[in-house]
Design a protein that fits this description.
The complex is a heterodimer. By secondary structure, chain A is an alpha/beta fold. Chain A has three domains: 43 residues; 214 residues, Response regulator (Rossmann fold), CATH 3.40.50; 111 residues, Rossmann fold (3-Layer(aba) Sandwich). In chain A, strands 4-1-5-6-7 form a five-stranded parallel beta sheet, with helices on both faces. In chain A, strands 9-8-10-11 form a four-stranded parallel beta sheet, with helices on one face. Chain A is globular and about 70 Å long. Chain B is mainly beta. Chain B has a domain of 92 residues: Thrombin, subunit H (Beta Barrel), CATH 2.40.10.480. Chain B has one helix and 28 strands. Chain B is globular and about 50 Å long. The chains are: A alpha/beta, B mainly beta. At the A-B interface, helix 1, helix 2, helix 4 and helix 12 of A face helix 1, strand 11 and strand 15 of B.
Chain lengths: 423, 325
């Protein structure tokens, strides 16, 4: 009874707000709501706590450097970079109407650890003590190897929401993982499809000093090969102002080679140097990669496929933060678990896992239905090519076709990966 | 200022002068989500005769019983605009919940039932008093709203919940739910009152619900020539008055499917524009009007020959078509 009251009070406020007329109208509305409350109370179901509950563990790392703000000189905050937990929360919010139909509750258990090494222990503990089967892991790539070892063969399914590393999909290749975030290879393939569609096939590549930058360029090289484009010059940059190293720190000098290019690709995970590349190149060419045109899993300006409603729900939850790729990954993970419960009509983990990894196809609000690739458990999905204030295109770009599913033109297709989870 | 605006709007709606008389103009109204206007098209020449500015993101449209007024749900301003059909002017506004998308009109009870896409609710609006008398909680992103002939039962889809809710219109609460395919959108019903059809956009089907049992009794799949299952995203539905033929817009597959209702066989596909959603039959059922969301035009189809006659450019992202006939 009390819970119904709470819902109704919220509705009453909604009514008052959406029809700001005068006092009598407001009273009128409240009277109507009260009668509704009675009607609802008669229909109310047993308290939610009596229903079976499916809990999804959300494991994150305190002080994860990937979620620290990127700041610049003068205390500028360039990117806030927060944990994608609210993505999982809106997934849970959306499941509320289904709890009535499924007679099952869904919950999130947020678990914070101190280092990548502790992720595996936290997952195993939650399984053993609380019976949690599904996990969203928001941790850097290095957490996944010990995790794979610790849960091998167990009744656990882990959704990787924040690590794009191709190595996790190719070499680690664990059956207990589902990679909800697009891989680096998918991102680069998406970007390359767009460049090819514009006939911008000559690239100048500027590579930063970080390991992540090298990984990005490596993925880019595979895409260049796959889609038949060319890297006309490749330069290592070194952020700084040292005049003796100007050949490496001045975007004009770095882009002044004799061979022409159509775009400048910059790999700069530190997001420092790259800010100075647009408008500082010698030739008037667009910049792609870590700035200006970025391949992402999600963008706050995406306005097709019902995306505005998802963005609105997310922004309401977070007080106005823009939804990003990892948020989408955490959100879809929850949706997949809820859908598995709905479609199998079962709270049985084995049936749910089978559905998620098999016939399950899910609405990711970005076009073609998303589903899990049987060979490496990567979630096949569209990649958005985002400029700061608009999604320029979504990949697969029109014209890039595949014999079974066009989404498999992005990233590792079955014959391309050493991972053979389907065998 | 906003307050004053609403008071004026209410006054306009309550004390609106009797609408001027002009029946069966045959005019074709197209709502355009991105240009915030209705394009009015002459039924004979197919020329655009008027461009009416309305509130932001106009979507579903319905006439009142004598077609003197046209109601237009405007998603980005949380209102239903009221348009005088003879004057072709907006004469009033009804406040809704957040982001109204589609609605059903009960002229007898003077009620509008509107789904609030961003509010996870169905608002029940008293047309004369211009107040929301009730809000029915639904699953996330409610869309299609269908009202039974006796006005007692409503059906509402939840796009995110994959549910169709049955709602007691008087009591204002959900009485039953039925699970359908992924992303259920809009409805049509057979005239015998037995079947309720609902498009499920992402699973690419039409689900058929037995209204007496409120259970799924079948489904229809579509595969227009040269298209994959994943291209098929059905949204709009129209059924002839004799309940023999149904037309289904297939969204990104850019076709309208023609379905024999009795056998549920797909009899053919008609090529239309990109992201075809809204579909409306003319009263004499000789023509079909299809809004092509990503073509910024409508396709007019001869229902007999099942051929497109002409495409007419309208505003940006046309949502639906209403005809004053």
């Amino acid at each position: 009874m009390t819970s119904w009251w709470r819902i109704q009070v919220r509705s009453a406020r909604g009514i008052v707000r959406s029809s700001p007329l005068d006092l009598s109208t407001t009273l009128n509305a409240i009277v109507c709501v009260c009668s509704a409350t009675m009607a609802m109370a008669q229909n109310s179901q047993p308290a939610p706590s009596q229903q079976p509950r499916i809990t999804i563990g959300y494991v994150e790392m305190a002080g994860d450097p990937r979620h620290e703000p990127i700041t610049a000189y003068g205390r500028l905050v360039l990117k806030n970079r927060e944990h994608p937990f609210p993505g999982a929360q809106i997934g849970l919010d959306e499941a509320q109407a289904l709890t009535r139909v499924l007679k099952t509750d869904f919950a999130l258990e947020r678990i914070t650890v101190k280092s990548p090494a502790e992720v595996a222990g936290a997952v195993v503990r939650a399984r053993d003590t609380n019976g949690v089967h599904f996990f969203i892991v928001d941790a850097p790539a290095e957490a996944f190897k010990p995790l794979a070892g610790a849960i091998k063969g167990r009744d656990i399914l882990v959704f990787n929401a924040t690590a794009a590393d191709d190595g996790l999909r190719r070499d680690l290749c664990a059956a207990e993982f589902v990679h909800a975030l697009p891989s680096l290879a998918m991102n680069m393939d998406g970007l390359m499809q767009y460049l090819v569609s514009r006939k911008w096939s000559n690239l100048l590549v500027l590579e930063g000093p970080a390991t992540a930058d090298a990984a990005m360029v490596k993925a880019l090289e595979s895409s260049v090969k796959k889609f038949g484009t060319r890297i006309v010059a490749r330069q290592q940059f070194k952020p700084g102002t040292d005049p003796r190293e100007r050949e490496k720190n001045d975007p004009a000098l770095l882009s002044a080679g004799s061979r022409d290019y159509d775009v400048v690709f910059v790999a700069d995970s530190a997001f420092d140097f790259v800010r100075q590349v647009p408008y500082h190149t010698v030739r008037a060419r667009p910049v792609v990669g870590s700035i200006d045109l970025e391949p992402v899993a999600w963008h706050w300006t995406w306005d097709h496929n019902g995306a505005p409603q998802v963005n609105t729900r997310f922004e309401k939850r977070t007080g106005g933060r823009h939804m990003e790729g990892p948020d989408w990954a955490a959100w879809i993970a929850v949706k997949m678990v809820v859908q598995a419960t709905l479609r199998t009509r079962s709270a049985d983990f084995e049936a749910q896992r089978k559905f998620i990894l098999g016939e399950g196809s899910f609405d990711g609000n970005k076009g073609l239905a998303v589903s899990v690739r049987p060979w490496d458990h990567q979630l096949r999905q569209a990649v958005l090519l985002a400029a700061p204030y608009a999604v320029v295109a979504s990949a697969p770009v029109e014209g890039f076709l595949h014999k079974t599913n066009d989404l498999d033109t992005l990233g590792d297709d079955q014959p391309e990966t050493p991972c053979r989870l389907d065998k | 200022m906003r307050h004053l605006f609403f008071v004026l709007a209410v006054a306009a709606a309550v004390f609106a002068p009797a609408p001027s008389d002009a029946k069966n103009t045959g005019l074709i109204f197209v709502s355009n989500e991105k240009t915030n206007n209705l394009i009015v098209i002459d039924p004979k020449t197919y020329q655009v005769v008027k461009d009416i500015k309305v509130s932001r993101r106009p979507r579903d449209m319905h006439f009142n019983a004598d077609h003197s007024l046209l109601y237009v749900a405007c998603g980005d301003d949380d209102v239903i605009d009221v348009l005088d059909v003879a004057k072709l002017e907006v004469v009033g506004k009804l406040a809704t919940g957040p982001s109204p998308e589609t609605f059903a009109l009960d002229g007898k009870r003077r009620r509008i039932y509107v789904s609030n896409e961003e509010g996870s609710s169905l608002s029940v609006i008293d047309i004369d008093q211009n107040i929301i008398v009730h809000e029915v909680p639904t699953g996330a992103e409610p869309e299609g709203v269908f009202i039974s002939d006796d006005g007692k039962t409503l059906y509402v889809t939840s796009e995110v919940g994959d549910l169709v809710h049955m709602v007691d219109a008087e009591g204002g609460h959900v009485t039953q739910d039925v699970v359908v395919g992924t992303r259920p959108r809009r409805f049509a019903a057979t005239p015998d009152g037995k079947e309720l059809w609902v498009t499920t956009e992402l699973s690419g089907e039409v689900y058929i619900i037995d209204r007496a049992k409120f259970a799924v009794m079948g489904k229809i799949e579509f595969r227009p020539p040269g298209m994959r299952k994943t291209d098929v995203t059905p949204v709009g539905l129209a059924m002839t008055k004799d309940g023999k033929t149904a037309y289904v817009t297939l969204g990104h597959a850019a076709h309208v499917a023609v379905v024999d209702v009795a056998t549920r066989n797909v009899e053919g596909y008609i090529l239309v524009g990109k992201r075809s959603w809204g579909i409306t039959l003319s009263r004499d059922e000789s023509k079909l009007f299809v809004a092509n969301g990503f073509g910024d035009d409508i396709t007019i189809i001869d229902a007999k020959t099942r051929k497109a006659i002409i495409s007419v450019p309208v505003g940006r992202i046309p949502w639906g078509v209403a005809i004053d006939d």
